[in-house]
Amino acid sequence: MVLTNVAVALVALATGHDFRARDVGDTFEKAARIAQYAADRLAAAQAGAPLPEPPDLLADQASLQILFIVTAVSQAAIIAYTGIITGLTGRELIRALGLRRFPLAGAWLPLAAVFAAYVGTFAWVQLVDALGLTWLEPRSTVPIEITRDDLTLSIAAAVTLVGAPVTEELFFRGLVFGGFSRWGFWPAALLSGFLFSLVHFDPGSVVPFLAIGVALAWLYQRSGTLWYPILFHFAFNAVSFTILAFG
To answer: Cα 25 to chain center, whole Å?
Structure first.
């Protein structure tokens, strides 16, 4: 993720974009910037000085598109990296991860786990609010500013709903959890879940996503196929993305 962010910044600079992925602030901050701009413009006009440039208040859509395109490229790189580090061919990797089968009888488990995850996350938010620890509230890692442009929204949807479930489950459950499962379920599940929570770069997501990571590891071990964690991840992201885009 760090390398992805660096790559995005370099591409944005090379193409002349300002790489402003989020708005400058809330409605009051935007209003204050506009009011200051009006005052500066009036003062410049009265003094016969060059007029100031309008303030940049909104996220740059081109930079957001670059962000998600580079993220998609990094997701493809994760798939290649997993194959390289395991030394398995594509067919062997599919077999090792149980991707050749999808047990329909237990398909309700990932969906029930999604419901439980949202209930648990809601309970966590209520707890930190009651304790006055609002900085521990989970925050969306996908900026709401993507909803202003159909192309940006479409690219973000592909990355969030297809790329993330496949690549993150391949890496964190298939590679990390699978690789450390020789230590036993709990050490491997906690380690993979903790690393999974860290890559979201949000302090409030550490505890909820650690728990979700453990649940995903349990789904993988119980079913013997990575399809169950992928289905959970897709459904969880789909609900969150729908709320963000249309809520």
So the answer is: 21
Q: Which residue has the tokens 């994760």?
A: 78
Q: State which of 9-18, 31-40, 213-222 shows the largest mean pLDDT.
A: 213-222
d(CA 152, CA 144): 11
Given the structure tokens 């580079």, which residue do they identify?
70
Per-residue pLDDT reduced to its tens digit, 96-109? 999 999 999 999 99
- Please check whether residue 198 lies inside any domain of the structure: yes
CB-based burial label for 86 (10 Å; 0-12, 13-18, 19+): middle
Domain contains 3 = no
Tell whether the model's pLDDT for residue 2 goes beyond 50.
Answer: no
Give pLDDT tens digits for 209-227. 999 999 999 999 999 999 9
Note whether 237 and 165 are within 8 A (CB).
yes
| Contact assessment for residue 237 and residue 212, using Cβ atoms and an 8 Å cutoff | no
What total number of domains does the chain contain?
1
Whether the CA torsion 223, 225, 227, 229 is positive or negative: it is positive
What is the model's pTM?
Answer: 0.86
- Domain of residue 71 covers 61-246
19 lies in some domain? no
